Amino acid sequence: MPDAMTQVKFTIESDIVSAFKSRCAAVGVSMASEVREFMKVCQPVKALKAGGLTRPTRRKAVTEIIGTLNGILDSETTYRDNIPEMFAQRHKAADNACDRLSEAISCLEDAF
Q1: Do residues 54 and 73 touch, judged by C-beta distance below 8 A?
Q2: CB-hemisphere CA count at 13 Å for 42?
Q3: Rounded Cα distance, 96 and 104, in Å
Q4: Rounded-to-integer distance, Cα 11 and Cα 1, Å
Q5: Domain count of the chain?
Q6: What is the DSSP code (8-state) at residue 5?
Q7: Is residue 53 within 8 Å of 63, Cβ to Cβ?
Q8: Does 79 lie in the same domain as 37?
Q9: Rounded to whole angstroms, how far apart are CA atoms 94 and 53?
Q10: What are phi and psi of 19, to 5 degrees?
Q11: Which of 16, 25, 13, 29 is nearest to 79 (CA)?
Q12: How far apart are CA 77 and CA 67, in angstroms?
């Protein structure tokens, strides 16, 4: 019996969606499979939902989140660096995303 399916709705800027579609088409994968794989990898850490966790358990969970964010940051940096100069708006959006991811990583590292 197949797993239960859940619909997910994203609100994303149209130029980012276009770039995602183009990238999926270039690699020869479906957008749905890529989103599904992303959701598997980036599921919330279940340990954070339980109460009364020890500091080492919380530290491990935060370290895993930092690792995931670093992977996303690397991908976004590669994307940003490969945007042609004529797409200034895309470059600016990707640069903003890189800055925000770096800030999030820095905040998490400072917390633990």
Answers
A1: no
A2: 12
A3: 12
A4: 31
A5: 2
A6: P
A7: no
A8: no
A9: 36
A10: -65, -40
A11: 16
A12: 15
Token pair of 89, please?
Answer: 């708006």
Residue 1 has pLDDT above 50, yes or no: no
Distance, in Å, from the CA atom of 101 to the CA atom of 65, rounded to the nearest integer, reads: 12
CA separation for the pair 72, 93 (Å, rounded):
15
Show the tokens assigned to 95. 């640069």
Domain extent, residue 70, equals 44-112
Residue with more model confidence, 81 or 50: 81
- Identify the residue whose tokens are 């995303």: 97
Residue in 8, 11, 20 with CA at minimum distance from that of residue 94 = 20
Q: Which residue has the higher pLDDT, 67 or 22?
A: 67
Q: CA 6 to CA 49: how far, in whole Å?
A: 21
Residues 110 and 75 in one domain: yes
Token duo for residue 11 = 């609100």
Same domain (yes/no): 81, 67: yes
Q: pLDDT averaged over the chain? A: 77
